[in-house]
Please model this.
Amino acid sequence: MKLTPGTPDALAPGLRSLSYGIFCWANRNPGALRKIGWVLRRWPFVGGWFGMAARASAVKAVLTRPNSFSNTAHAGNLSAGDYLIGMDPGPTYAADKSLLDDRLADLDLKLPADADAEVKRLVNELGALGKNKPFDLIDKYLMWIVLRAMDPLFGAATPRVAAGVNGNINDPGLQKQYMMEIRYVAGQLLAGSTATLRVQRRAELNSDALKARIAAVRTDIENAWNVHGRSADFIDRNAVGLAWISHPVTVQSGALAVQELLGRPEVHKALREEARRLQQIGPDEVWQNKAFRTSVYNHVLELMRFRPIFPLLARDVPRDTEFVTGARHNATCPAGGKMAIWSISAMFDPDVTKDIKPFKDISQFCPTRNWGNQADLRWLMFGYGTRQCPAMKYAVEILTSALIGLLILPELKLARGEGKAIAYDGALMSRMLVNFI
Amino acid sequence: MLEMVRQQMICIVVPGWEGTTELAENGPVFTGLEDLLRKVDVVQFASVALLPARADAEEETPSLMMELAIEEGIDPYDMLYRLICHPSEAMWALYRSYWPDGGPPLQSERNRQLLDKLMPCLSIADGGFIGARDRTARQIEKEQALLQWTRGQARALKATGQCGDDRAAFALALAQRAFQNPSFDWALEPAPRSYWRGKGASTSTKIGFVVGAFVLGLVAVWLVGAVPRGAVGLWTWLFGAPHPDVLVVVAFISKASRWVLGVSLRTALVVLVVLYFGWLFLVALPALFKSWRLWLESLWRELDRPTETWSSWSTYWVGWLVVVPLALAVVAFAMVFIFCPRIILDAYHAATKELYGWQIVALVLLALVALIVFVNVFSKVNQRVAKTGNWFFHPYEDDVPRAQQVHASIDRCEGQLVGGTAHMISLTDLRSPNGWSAWWIRTSLRIVTFAGRVFFTEGRLGTAPGIHFGHWHIIEGGRRYLFCSNYDGSFGGYLDDFINGATIGTTLAWRWTTLKPRGSAGAGPAVDKPRSFPPTRFGVFRGVKCELKFKSYARDSMLPHLYRFDKCKTPVDQIILATGLRDALFGERNDRNDDLIMRAIES
Amino acid sequence: MKAQEAPHLRDQLKDIQGMLRSGYGWLQSSRFWLLSIRDGHEDAARAWLAAKSGLVVSAARIGKGKRVENAVAIAFSYAGLTKLGCRETEAHPFPTPFRSGMGSKLREQLLRDTPRDWRWSDVDGADCGPVHVLIAEWTPKGAGPLITDIDEKVFCVIKIENDPCSFHDIGGEEKLREAFGFRDGLAQPVIRGLKQDDDVGKDRDEIGPLYDDRLVSPGEFILGYRNEYNELTYCPNVEGWTQSGHAKYPGGRFALNGSYLAVRQIKQNVKAFDAFRDAYGQEVCNKVMGRQDNGLPLGWKYDPNNPISDSQADAFRFRVEDANGFVCPRGAHIRRVNPRDSLGTDVESSITSTKLHRLLRRGRPYLEESKDDTHNGIFFIACNADLERQFEFIHQRWVRNPGFGTLHADDPIAGTDDPTALPKTFSMPGLASGQEVSLAAFTKTLGGGYFFLPGIAALKFIVGLPVDAKETIAEPAKVAAV
Model:
């Protein structure tokens, strides 16, 4: 059942901040999660006691049994109302999914051209900043790229959605307001009811604002989607969901990927070298060279493997069942319980690639690794099986454009000025101050 | 925990109001605001008022004050952001006169500038009490709908005569109907309550929480010392003695840990002993001995007495001359016991070195007898003196000029709200030195807030009922003190409840204030003559017990509202009843729940 | 500020009007005159009132073993005091409720009277304008009126005539019954220090500690004395009073020994109540009122034919034995107007709190016979020292408050007569779920006002009598030894 909005704090004082603190720390420190994941893989029966799947085989098995391990675990976190991500399969799910697929199909036509165009514009803008002038990579760069690249989702209604029903569509501040709105709603997907009350209530406030915003421009959206005769609830549910899930998740993934890249100077350097070489060939070569794009694409995926946006996933257990942990005995899952899925651990499971030649240690950073028949595991941070994120390819495509842009800009580093370069807002990264060297 | 409560009650005081915006009650500004607050859903009460400038302020223009009472857990910034950035721009309409040039053309820029202006003027309550409004307005509205629906169904069911006089069958029939009604699916889960009102409501949980936290703390401190000690021991056993510097550091840590443990345990012991004696003298002895109870009652009465009589005067001075030094001595003894117990032990040994055990026991008994004799003699003498004292020390009364006066604007506001939740805004000045007063007020208010959050969870503060949100703010850099309250009932009845039901808390919260002359703002009243808060005794007695002075002081400090928002006009008792009905109707079918349903459907 | 010594009540009885000490139960006829002084006739009005003030009886003349043959009380509305030239001082003005008057629009809101359809009030009136003076007279049964010579050129007069059927022989004694047939005037507060020499010993013996429930400090009803907060009740002052030498008590202000009267003329729809009685029976009527018609408590367990004193009939509480209202419904009239021990967190705190909201009722039934309208009613008079804390609180928070406790209706008897609010429902809790009945509007308020009942010296001051006119005052009313 969905949580009632505005529920007061029912936890004893101290418990919530402690548990949320641990949760946020774990999300910000994927290295620590990987180490725990190693323990859980090594002795899978331990995970079995606590309802945790850690081995790649176990994770895959759980994620391909939607009837036993239900997506409704997310439903409680959907402060903006129902959406696909928290639904069980059924007629509503099927109808919504069909609409979503239609919307995403529009992206095929525009990507990566739209993303590239916005990146080029921002490269010009940021390029003029000069050295040692810190700027927020999220607010000044990633957010706008993703917004423009995702334009086709709402088609002609996009400016209205972003500016609100009465707003001036050329007011960038209103667009920023829209993006903050959906960011806070999305933040709730991760934390759910473990979050501090402030985070939960902020998500609810913004959900309320987002729903009002969408309801006010419903007709524009109907026209843009060319969907008529459907209930207002159908339009609103899908428009609200599409708004908050797509954009912030992509931005956040991008920020995580850049954070990881900046922590790997040699990888960063090699990529920059390649970009510089191509630029010497011609100004547009970086954009047109397929091999380079593929390489950057692989880098993005590999960076995201080390810093996945959803390192852990949850599933509800609607009925008594058991799952194969990899230990001698299967683990039982009592009905009404929850299941924790250690995607981050599965993506580093050495069993997956041990037979693939040439062998590359899976714990090492290697964008060009041959994944053999396990290539789908690279995408585990986007879910798996029947409930994998349908927009994952577009997200990585957009981030590839964004990363190419960063490679042709002067070299970046985290800004060492006042305060920390990276500011977190719970589990999310809210600011990433960088400057050109 | 307290901040979460304090954040629910916000005041935004923006100085320099020039008054060029038309603020008619039914004008576009307030109808827009009403619309906004209804849509935003999380605001339970709001009001707008003009605060007159201080007489010594540089600017003579009043401040525009907006009071918000919102749901639990919302950060004030998020709330303000939501209100300001709403597409209706209702907040901008209210504050636009602060931008004489009309403000920036871009909406987002206007929003930003307004947010930047209001955030520094925003203060969360320095202390406050929330009655039954830990529930959201939405929950209250839904539960009221359930209550009305159930009453209607009960009426219909009675008319059919199906259930006769069988209470269980009647309750079951009602519960079945409620279950079958899809519009009440939200009621299937138990009414959400905050921890201290839900799971942590019982006394045992509260004691358990404190004891648990204390024990965990002790264990942590012990581990800090024990782990390095153990590690050094193990190291020495395996490889021989480590570097001397390591030993010094470990010894220091270990000693510090032991010291903290000792101090903590002795502090706990002192607290227990104080609690025990408190219980003994204030609860157990009065229950056992009528004379003790009467003595305590008369002591309380004399300390609280609003007029000066010989016995109240003498009680006060005996308090200063005997009780205060005694209390200080006890505190000093406790401190010595906590931090340097050795001194006490040594002194005891030195004093009893030459004595046998029976002699010590005899001495203690003798001291007790002497004390009882002394107290009795003192009591007799006191009675005599009191009689004689009252003979020549005639009771007299301070004159309270202009008592029972209410400004027309205040009366008008009260008249408007008589059918809903009543409201008051009181503005007083801090007594000088301001910093000292502000510190005391804050400390007192934190205690009141804590008590309200953890102990007074049944909608009553002390025994004062009907408070939805009562909050205090120290504003203008510690110069003035703002009190806003949303409550059921009339102003006078409300203060009566405070005078009788929450004397100490109310006196504590107000005694550091005074009323300085000030002009009027808008149609509101001015203060012509300075006024002091009624005199208090030992900080917590008398004060509000002086009804005339206190009410007159409170009345004269009041300001009218220009606008008032009340999301759901439901009295506290009604809110509690509806929640009870929800849990009973959708809960287990037992006698208690059945009876609760029966009581709820009777009006 | 100069400290002021408190007067002793027993030294001041000669200055206190008698109605504060007694309801004159032995004087079974009563009439009330509402006078508006016509413009330009203030002096004549003062002279006439000065002559009548001799009929006013002081509290010193009644008490144990002392009864008067007839009595008069005179009170003034704020408009009346102003009309007669009294100007309140800057430092001690009259309380706001009294100054604004019960008839004001604001009081209409605060007393939840909306909508009003009043004939008269202390602020305005259909025929005469604001009522300035209230004169009450009590005479033996069947006696003619004491006041007979009102000059209509000086005053515009509304007369409230006696209901000759209001006293009935019950157990050999004439007892008051209001028009619906219920005993009235049972639950009265006892003023501490004033009734001491009456029946206090007997009452206390009969009912024990419950007697303390009704014992209220004098300052709750008489201005200038200790009230339930142990404080002297606020006394307003008027200009010229202090210099006039009228003050009997040194430093005493104008209002000392006075009281405020909240007055309402309440029409009783006897037909509607009888129809209700026919439909539901007397027992339900008793539940609505909260008392048996013979005055016994609803939960009386003993032989109803065995006569008991009024004091015993009023010795009960609700909290412990009847918290849910199975015996006396929580919304019953008497439980609303005097919740006794039922509203606080425990018995003690509830009684303490209720004592802050008590009224000394001195009203009487009346009968109006005219061509257009013949009806019974109650001319309700409540003496109190703080209108806001007593009468207005009771009316606004208890009687007329639809959300009283957790109820959903106002008073079944004295509630609103607004036709849009009808029919009202009244619930009688029961072990299963009780019973609900529909109510008509049984009463309608025809007018009302706040009056100030001055001390006798202040009365002389108002009407312009000299300080030494004391002797002439006491004469007209004869003292009868009983």
The first helix of chain B runs from residue 2 to 6.
